[in-house]
Design goal:
about 30% strand; 3 helices; 2 domains; three-stranded antiparallel beta sheet; single chain; alpha+beta
Length: about 325
């Protein structure tokens, strides 16, 4: 309505000036002077009191100090037909066409766009508990970061599986060999041995330097002097001062078989301590991750070939 009101006021000023030029502001309009047939505007053509347009008409009259009644609303000064023409013309011209409200002038409220909910973050897939292990003597189970288990063929690398890692073979698969003065035979995986023949105390097991064949002997090479042929029945070893993964440690007291000019003698001596550490978890190396979907990743160090290596597994929580 505000825009319509100001438009009417502008048009009123133009019409009043025109009426003054025509000398008809105070009496009946001569429509022949305007190029139209002479007739009067009846009150039925006027806006009704109380209507939206009637309020605009009243504002027009007050603006120009007109005081005329139509349908009992106002008193008369100028010709009713002339006044009615002014009001109807202004209303139909200024308010007959719709105008877009200007910014800040009763503009319709803008509807806020519907809130877009953020996409739900996909949940991480649950991991399957997985830990290194030996599926058999030659295959080690290893775990990916997602807990997916896979097998590694240790035998293809000339190794065996020990506590979930590929380690050095204990002995040559299927071969006879000497161990602590006795004759042993290795299994087909290189993981275990069993006594094939006892050589002590009447002899000792020795591997021929030329043929590489192991057997029980009662005599030794005459060229050998004070050469230890085998150590056995050793005292317990003390590994407290060596790294956890170390395979060898300080010497310890053992029984010995010694070659002296072709003869085998028995006595005592010192021998280096040897142990197997492959697959052992280094104490204090485990670091547990956050629990997600009832599982957690555990980082740790494991012994391989006498040294620690970083590994991981998936545990339940």
């Amino acid at each position: 309505m505000t825009a319509c009101y100001f438009e009417i006021r502008k048009m009123c000023a133009t019409l009043v000036l025109r009426f003054y030029e025509m000398g008809k502001l105070g009496g009946e309009l001569d429509f022949h002077r305007l190029g139209r047939p002479n007739h009067h505007v009846h009150h039925d053509a006027m806006p009704k009191c109380g209507s939206h347009n009637a309020h605009i008409a009243e504002e027009i009259v007050r603006t120009f100090d007109w005081s005329f009644p139509y349908h009992g609303c106002m008193s008369v000064n100028m010709s009713s037909s002339a006044r009615a023409l002014v009001v109807v013309a202004l209303l139909s011209t200024a308010c007959g066409k719709s105008e877009s409200p200007k910014s800040g002038e009763n503009a319709p409220a803008k509807t806020a766009p519907a809130a877009v909910e953020p996409a739900a973050t996909p949940k991480k897939a649950a991991k399957t508990p997985c830990a290194p292990a030996c599926s058999d003597a030659t295959h080690a189970q290893v775990c990916s970061e997602d807990g997916v288990a896979s097998l590694v063929d240790c035998a293809a690398k000339g190794r065996r599986c020990v506590r979930g890692v590929c380690a050095e073979q204990l002995c040559k698969p299927g071969a006879l060999h000497c161990h602590e003065g006795e004759l042993y035979k290795c299994d087909e995986t290189g993981s275990n041995r069993k006594v094939e023949k006892k050589c002590r105390p009447d002899g000792i097991c020795l591997t021929d330097a030329k043929t590489k064949v192991a057997s029980c002997i009662q005599k030794c090479d005459k060229a050998l002097q004070q050469v230890t042929l085998a150590s056995y029945e050793c005292e317990a070893c003390d590994f407290k001062d060596v790294p956890f993964c170390a395979k060898t440690g300080p010497e310890t007291s053992c029984s010995e078989a010694v070659c002296n000019g072709g003869e085998i003698s028995y006595g005592a001596g010192m021998s280096e301590c040897v142990r197997e550490t492959d697959g052992l978890i280094v104490p204090g190396s485990e670091k547990k991750g956050a629990c997600e979907n009832a599982t957690m990743t555990v980082q740790y160090e494991v012994c391989v070939d006498g040294k620690p290596e970083k590994r991981s597994r998936i545990d339940g929580c």
